[in-house]
Amino acid sequence: MSKILVYPVILHPEDTGYTVEVPDITGGFTQGEDLTNALEMASDMIGLMLEDTTNYPKPSKLESIHVADNDIKTIVAIDMDDYRRNNSKTIRKTVTVPEYLVKMGKEKNLNFSAVLTKALKTELNL
């Protein structure tokens, strides 16, 4: 089951493009060259700000957000599981495997990290 987050955003029109504010995310500001890019940047910023947590801020109700006359309020949705899969950092893990498998893997020029990643994805049904 995916973790879909939906947050209200405020688009502030600029001479060129938009400044984007996500009121529920501390430091939640970005910008975009046009409307589509601004919404994509908002989604990416939400993912970036929340990728290391599962304690997500509660989204405000759209109707409770007040904006200036020329501002646009809307919502942005992001699938956090999908975001993490597509923007994942790699980390070093120390693992223990039988010596004969290491020798055989080296003879076949295997990339042990790639093999472990593939095996974990298979085991986790990803």
Automatic annotation (TrEMBL):
UniProt-listed Gene3D superfamilies: 3.30.160.250
Domain spans labelled HicB-like antitoxin of toxin-antitoxin system: 7-103
Protein name: Putative phage protein
Species the sequence originates in: Lactobacillus kimbladii
